[in-house]
Description:
Oligomer: single chain
Radius of gyration: 27 Å
Distance between the termini: 63 Å
Largest sheet: 4 strands, antiparallel
Number of helices: 21
Strand content: 5-15%
Low-confidence stretches: 1-24, 322-354
Structural class: alpha+beta
Amino acid sequence: MAIDDLPHSVRAVAGVGFPASTGLPSLPWMVRLRNGLNARQSLAPLASFRVLFGLLMLASVVRFAAKGWIQELYLEPTFFFKYPGFEWVLVPGAAGMYALFVLMGLGALGVALGCFYRVSAVVFFAAFTYVELLDKTNYLNHYYFVSLIAFLLIFLPAHRRFSLDAFRKPWIRRSRAPRWVTGILPLQIGLVYFFAGLAKINADWLLHALPLRIWLPAQTHLPVIGPLLAIPATAWVFSWVGMFYDLTLPLWLNLRITRPWAYAAAIVFHGLTAWLFPIGMFPWIMLAAALIFFPAAWHERWQRVLGDVLGRVLPLRAPVLVQVRPGLGGWIRTRFGGQLGQKFGPGPAHRSQWNTRLRPLVFAALALWFTAQLTLPFRYLLYPGSLFWTESGYRFSWRVMLMEKAGYASFRVQEAGSARYEVVRPADYLTPNQEKMMATQPDMLLQFARYLAQVYRERGLKDPAVYADVWVSLNGRGSRLYVNPETDLSRIDPRSPRTEWLTDPNITK
């Protein structure tokens, strides 16, 4: 379909001009929306985010390897809990895993420096996401966040300013881009905060201060704030402040008058969570992400200072464009000696025309992306049962530190037609972390039951059935029977929304 064949309302939103002969009126709100989306904004905040994100990811890779987690999480296990549809993602052996992390680190460094940026962004995203898909035991909200951001960075022009690519190839340099480009990351980050706050609007968090009422008293040994954490009211204050903070922070960061105070609150909030809870790099990633809401002048100022420092330390001479020719090659470099901040004119005309033709497709892709981001957190409404009990729709919904759930599970394998059975300890097959996570997550219980059935089938047991004795405590309440002990779990598809094999959390058994 040609652009002129699109409805005029679609072309208005996409920023595509109309033929004068159509006589079709432009609705005022569409004109304002189009003008707002196409307004040119500085690329400085996006470039700053690229640098900080890449450096934090590089630090994360080094930290992960230094703590021995590659060995512990991916080489020691003999069984992995797979995400539906990603059973093909396999551990590529010890050498392959370490090579994967080396590639991940190189990709992160390339993103930070803006060096071979597109390739670096693809490499980092592919390596990071592949590792996270190996075992759902290791799922964390901020890993999911990193994958989303890394994917978006592949397509964003974050390397066209303050990067080695822009230094080496001046013809790609740009100082500005349309607002619909520069606003993608702030919108994504804002949605994360908003849904994290929305998820906290529940009875346990606001009315009972759970699980903070369990976690905070365990930190009373800390200096300065330790005695404060022992006061019961502190858990309620933290719960309500945390909800309000997450729900509204993007708004305060967007307003000039409240931005400094909002970021100061972010430093206190994320600093406290890093101090109180073992949540790794997440607080620092979110602090870096929040800086993208700062005005372009702020980012330009520190980039200029850092660029001057690097210019004195590294006596490099940038290539200068002296001739332009049409065609795919376009730009010709013939001499050196330019400055990093030198401006250049627009690119070849055929590139602008190509971008104009692609724009409706890009807008459609963005619409699908953010529709998914807006709907995924609500998919739990499609499943029966209590969300915290069944955890159906819990992952990928920005529910951060909302519950304290502990459990114990043992299994028995019984041959069809026989009264004899064998009790199985999960520790004989799983690592301690896998056993801990599996005991409270229904889909993982089902996956492990299927695995046990396969193991015993290979041992010669005919048509084995797998039953489980599972007890779970949720947010400090007494342990309750979690699974119907008479249900053969190996017969239930882990992807099924069925939960009748789980007990009712409101009934003591």
